[in-house]
Amino acid sequence: MDSILTVSEIETQFDSEWILISDPETDESLEVKGGIVLWHSPDRDEVYQKAIELHPKCFAVLYTGTLPEDAAIIL
């Protein structure tokens, strides 16, 4: 994919998947608003491996599903 998608478009196309986004567009609080989807998969490790392989200069990783209640998020 070469076109810039909004987060809403990404969530619609890739339900419950991990998304590798190149050149993410962010707001003033650095929340991702859109970008170019480089890779997507339900397997988080596969997406991180692809990020290592592609080595994009600027990227973000999003998850479009619902995280389990016992999941921890580290920023």
The general outline is globular
Head-to-tail CA distance between termini:
28 Å
Radius of gyration: 12 Å
Percent of residues in beta strands: 35-45%
Major sheet size, sense and barrel closure: 4 strands, antiparallel
As laid out across the biggest beta sheet, the strand order is 1-3-2-4
Number of E strands: 4
Q: Please state the average pLDDT score.
A: 93
Describe the structure.
- With 75 residues, the chain is of the alpha+beta class.
- The chain has one domain (4-63).
- The protein is built from two helices and four strands, in the order βαββαβ.
- The mean pLDDT is 93.
SSE map:
Layout: E1 4-6, H1 7-13, E2 18-26, E3 32-41, H2 44-54, E4 59-63
Antiparallel strand pairs: 1-3, 2-3, 2-4
Brief account:
By secondary structure, this protein is α+β, with helices and mostly antiparallel strands. Helices cover 24% and strands 36% of the residues.
Features:
alpha+beta, four-stranded antiparallel β-sheet, 24% helix
